[in-house]
Design a protein that fits this description.
globular, alpha/beta
Length: 79
């Protein structure tokens, strides 16, 4: 099965703007994985989708925290 990894800075964005894309990809046999920080919008669960939590501070301007977020994302991609 082919895999798709969608990355966003909030689950809200994925749910509001990529839901139709996700459903279409699922119909075509793709496994969907979403990478986003943990937030309240995850209550709008999308059936058959794996959610991977990303350690990201959306409001941070600290370069060390940003570097840490980037390293964490690279680790997620490698898995």
């Amino acid at each position: 099965m082919k895999k798709i990894l969608l990355v966003a800075n909030s689950f809200w964005y994925i749910h509001n703007f990529r839901l139709l894309l996700i459903k279409e990809l699922q119909k075509n046999g793709y496994e969907i994985n979403i990478v986003c920080p943990k937030d309240k919008s995850e209550n709008f669960f999308i059936k058959g989708v794996n959610i991977i939590h990303w350690k990201l501070s959306r409001k941070s301007i600290n370069p060390f925290l940003e570097l840490n977020s980037l390293i964490n994302l690279i680790k997620i991609y490698r898995k």
